Amino acid sequence: MLPKVIIHNSISLDGSLTDFEPNMALHYQIAGNYKPDAHLIGSKTVKVGAELYGEGVPPEEAKDFEKPERDENLPYWVILDTGGALEGLLHTCRRFEFCKDVIVLVSGETPEKYVRHLEERNYDYHVVGRKHVDLKKALELLSVKYGVKKVLTDTGRVLGNFLLNQGLASEISLLIHPVVLGKKSYGMFSNINEAISLKLDKTETLGNGYVWLVYTVRK
Predict the structure, then answer these.
(1) Most buried residue among 71, 111, 173, 187 by CB atoms closer than 10 A?
(2) CATH code of the domain made up of 1-36+155-219
(3) For 12-33, what is each residue's pLDDT tens digit?
């Protein structure tokens, strides 16, 4: 059985994901309330996050080669990285105190050098797909091997649109910000192939112009 997949994003009133200052405290407060078993993240998001919020990448230490011992109720960070973009960066994710550990999803075309990098550092990694990650197989694996029942992704348009196009998303959570981007708008759903029917489950006004909407994706 596939886990429940929730797409959670902060967007402008006209659906843009970028070019405005999101309320990250409110964004993560909502995300945390879902209590997911795993966060599904694209490698690009990790790199952008490190560049935006980091102060340079700290060097690896001996403890970064070991699996952390943390609360079993914490979520895994499941990262798609077929090209090895996060070589030398993954330890910054593993160090995050609210992450149980990192699981890396790769493909048959992932460079061997990167696979060795993962093995040397005791990361769980799984080959799910020949060229790209097969998201359905990846979700099945997370359910069977790790007991994951609920997955949350809040990493932007590409991964979210893939999940919706493949019929794998169960719920869409949107934190609407009181701003219109107009011509600069980077539409969250602009890569959706066909119309998707939704059922509105929640509308909550959060003050200062913020609105939280939750939709069930009709299968």
Answers:
(1) 173
(2) 3.40.430.10
(3) 999 999 999 999 999 999 999 9
Q: Tell whether pTM > 0.90.
A: yes
Residues of the chain short of pLDDT 50, as ranges, are none
Residue 16 DSSP symbol: B
**Strand, coil or helix: what is 138?**
helix
**Coil vs helix vs strand at 125:** strand
User: Domain limits of the chain?
Assistant: 1-36+155-219, 38-148
With CA atoms as reference, report the closest residue to 85 among 104, 66, 58, 108: 104
Contact 96, 120 (CB under 8 A): no
CATH classification (class only), 38-148: alpha beta
Kind and range of the H or E element at 43?
A: helix 43-53
Q: What is the CB neighbour count within 10 angstroms for residue 101?
A: 18
Rg (CA), the chain: 18
Can you point out the beta strands (E) in the chain?
4-12, 38-42, 76-80, 102-106, 124-127, 150-153, 171-177, 198-207, 210-217
